[in-house]
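Query form — protein Ion transport domain-containing protein

QUESTION: What is the three-dimensional structure of this chain?
INPUT:
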Amino acid sequence: MIIPLLYIAVVTPIRIFFQPVVDPWMDTVEWFVTACFWVDIVVNFCSAYRDPSTDNLVVNPWLIARRYVFGWFIVDLIASVPIDAFITGDSASSVNELSKLARLPRSLRLLRLLRLLRALRLVHLQGHLRRVERSADMHPAIARVFMITFWAFVLLHFSGSIWWFI
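ANSWER: The structure tokens for Ion transport domain-containing protein are given below.
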């Protein structure tokens, strides 16, 4: 799941704010990433977890589903919905074509900002990176510097893209 999350972190701001010409293969990648997110939702409904109070592994499907629904499910569901398909009835490339051909005013093009909802999935990236940190057996200070640097780059990327858009 790290690769689709990194894709969202890098490509989503570029596609929203710079409005590049989208090739059909980019639409395919977008649909693949969306499919990965939907598969992740299904996997989360089936994944056991450790109860923090007893440190026992919980394998009861109802308890797993309850924990997920009251936890990250809403964020995952909102971030997994392909907004472009609902706005235009087609993929992201049609949004680019419509904004160019119809010369839509800037206020209507702000509908493209709905794609930022996919960035909500980035909150999961922190957990994945912590697992990589633990498995890599690196010094905690080095891992902390890596995490701060990574999130600084993500924040700068989003900020720079927004600045360009304005």
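ADDITIONAL NOTE: The beta strands are 49-50, 57-58.
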